[in-house]
Every structure is written in structure tokens, then in C-alpha cells.
């Protein structure tokens, strides 16, 4: 197997892995994939290069890609807003899964899905209804009418 083909396969594997775990927003696999893609391209253009040179190019291009792209990607990533418990109180949340005092359900508030249960003695909520957040208990919203 030539260095060009090997590093092309490595690039495909790294970039595919990044796409599969994209929710982590790590970008390291993407950056390593770019380095492997650059090494593959150079090895294809200059077929007489040794494995050592192509591997060194992979390392250097990955480092350069990281130095250039990481600051840009980190700036591009949305920073999650800090949510304090008192920010939620009195706000409306859309019910995604039925919520009762006996069993937690799911609600959407502030663009995020939360675990929720009702205030003791309150009627249950069905999917699609709007609930008012009464308090926050850890990562669970306590909702009522």
C-alpha cells in the first residue's frame, strides 16, 4: 500500500469519526484528518517520497491545522449560557413527555430539554401543554399550572 492511499484512508477514518461524534465538538479528529489528507495529497503528487517524509508531513500539517483552526473553531462554537435556578422560576416550559408528581417527564425550556415533575397536588401535564416552572431541584424542574 502506498503512503498516498494509506494516509487517504486515515483521513477518511478521522473525518468520519469526527462526523459521528460531532456533538462533543472536539474537532481533533477533523484536524488530524486534514493533516492526513494533506500528507496523502503530497504523497500522490510526489510518489517518490519516503514513508518517513510523508509521516513527518502528516504530523506537521496536523499541528499547523490545529494552530490555525482551533482558535477559529472555538470562537465559532456557541458558549452555553449559565443558567441559575432562579432564572427559570416563573418561566414557561413546553411539555415533551407527560409530567406528574409520581413520575418525571421531559420539558423544553430555554432551548434545552429538562427532566421535570409537578408540584405535589398539581394536575398532571400532557404532551404539548405549557407548564410554569415553580422551582429547580438540581437538574429537575418542578412545574405547575
TrEMBL record:
Transmembrane segments: 6-22, 27-46, 52-73
Keyword Transmembrane: yes
Pfam family membership, one: NfeD
Subcellular location: Membrane
PANTHER family: INNER MEMBRANE PROTEIN YBBJ
Alphabetical keyword list: Membrane, Transmembrane, Transmembrane helix
InterPro entries according to UniProt: Membrane_assoc_protease, NA-bd_OB-fold, NfeD-like_C
Domain NfeD-like C-terminal: 87-143
Protein name: NfeD-like C-terminal domain-containing protein
Amino acid at each position: 500500500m502506498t503512503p498516498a492511499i494509506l494516509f487517504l484512508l486515515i483521513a477518511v477514518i478521522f473525518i468520519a469519526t469526527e462526523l459521528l461524534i460531532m456533538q462533543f465538538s472536539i474537532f481533533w479528529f477533523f484536524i488530524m484528518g486534514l493533516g492526513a489528507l494533506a500528507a496523502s495529497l503530497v504523497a500522490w503528487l510526489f510518489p517518490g517520497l519516503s514513508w518517513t517524509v510523508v509521516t513527518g508531513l502528516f504530523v506537521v500539517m496536523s499541528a499547523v491545522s490545529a494552530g490555525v483552526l482551533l482558535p477559529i473553531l472555538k470562537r465559532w462554537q456557541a458558549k452555553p449560557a449559565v443558567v441559575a435556578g432562579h432564572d427559570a422560576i416563573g418561566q414557561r416550559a413546553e411539555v415533551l413527555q407527560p409530567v406528574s408528581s409520581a413520575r418525571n417527564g421531559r420539558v423544553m425550556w430555554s432551548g434545552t430539554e429538562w427532566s421535570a415533575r409537578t408540584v405535589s397536588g398539581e394536575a398532571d401535564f400532557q404532551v404539548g401543554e405549557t407548564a410554569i416552572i415553580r422551582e429547580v431541584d438540581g437538574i429537575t424542574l418542578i412545574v405547575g399550572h
